[in-house]
Amino acid sequence: MKSSRLVAAAAASVLLFAGLIGCAPPEKDKPEEQTQSGVNAREATSAEDFGGLSGLEEAAKKEGELNVIALPPDWANYGAIIKAFEDKYGIKVNSAQPDAASQDEINAANQQRGRSSAPDVFDLGQSVALANTAMFAPYKVAVWDDIPAAYKDSNGAWVNDYGGYMSIGFDSAKVPPVTSVDDLLKPEYKGKVALNGDPTQAGAAFSGVLMVALSQGGSADDIAPGVEFFRKLSEAGNFLPVDPTPATIESGQTPVVIDWNYLNAAETKKLPSWQVLVPPDHAVAGYYYQAINKDAPHPAAARLWEEFLFSDEGQNLYAAGGVRPVRADNMLADGKLDKSVASAIPVIDGPATVPSPEQTEKATAYLADHWAEAIG
Known about the structure:
Largest sheet: 7 strands, mixed
Keywords: Signal
GO cellular component, one term: outer membrane-bounded periplasmic space
Helix content: 25-40%
Protein name: ABC transporter substrate-binding protein
Number of strands: 9
Structural class: alpha+beta
GO biological process, one term: thiamine transport
Order of helices and strands: HEHEHEHEEHHHEHEEHHEHHH
Distance between the termini: 25 Å
Shape: globular
GO molecular function: thiamine binding; thiamine pyrophosphate binding
C-alpha cells in the first residue's frame, strides 16, 4: 500500500461521487526523435505532432520502454494498467520504487536527469505537482475536451487522472465497529489506529488529518483541530505509528486504518471481516495529478502512456480499481463506462471537501510546524 502520496485535489468545483538512486554522471544524450511535423518528440504537445495516434504509437514502439515511478500494483489498479499497456503496445514498462512518495518522484527526476533510468511520467499529489510545474512537458491527450476544465491545466502541463474519498477501514473481527471519528478515542482502540503515512509528505495522511479536522469542527482553512485530535489519540495510546500495508492489515497488526477508500476497499476482497467507513458528514475527496517529465528519456512512450490512461480503456481500468476516473461522468453519460466496474465507484450523498491549492499550502505549513510535536 502506497504510504506517502500528497493529496491531489481539484482547485475548483468538485465532482461529487453521485478522487533513488544517487547522483551519477549523466549518460550521453541520444539523438532526438523527430515527429512527422518536424517537432522534437520531447516538445510534442499532442498526437497530431506525430501525424496522429498511429504515428505516436510507432514512435513510442521505436523507443521500446517506459519508466514509471511510485505506482504500486495494488494502488488504483496500476498493476493491471501497466500490464495492459505492455500487452497492447509491446513496450516494456520499468516500474521503480513503487512505494515511493510524490516528492521522491521529483527527486528521482532531478537526480537522474540525462540518464535512461529517469522517470518518464509522474503521478503526483497536489502540493508536489503544483510546486514543480516547471518540470512538466505540456501535452494534451486526444480526449482533452472530454476532461472538465477544473481538472486540468489549460496549457496541458498536468491533468487529474483519478480520485477517491478518505475513509476509515477496520477489522470487525478485532475491534468494535467504527461509526464515527470520535470512536477512535475509545479504549477499545488502544494501540490500533494507523494513518497511511506522514501528513507532511503523504497525501493519504494529509487527507486523513483533514477528515478528522472536519469532524472536530475544523475546515480546509483550519486543520488544527485534526492535529489536536491526533495529539489526544497519541496521548491515549490509541495511535499506532506504523505505515499500514496489505500485509499489516491481513496479519492484524493494523486493525484500524485511515486511508483512501479504494485502498481500504481492496482489502475487503482478502479479509471478509474488513469494513470501510467514509464519514458522510465529513467527506474529503482528492484527485491525483498526471504529468510528463520534460526531460523524459522516452518522450514518445511517455505521451502514449498518457493517451492510454485517459482513453476509455485506461479510465475503465482505473474504475476497476475502485477509484473515480476523471472522465467518469462523461463516460457514464455516453455509455462508455463499463457497467461491471461502475458499481465499484463510491457514491456519497452530500458535499465533499476538496482543499484549494492555497488551503493545502496553508495546512501543509501548519503540519510542518505542529505534527511531529503532536504525536510525540
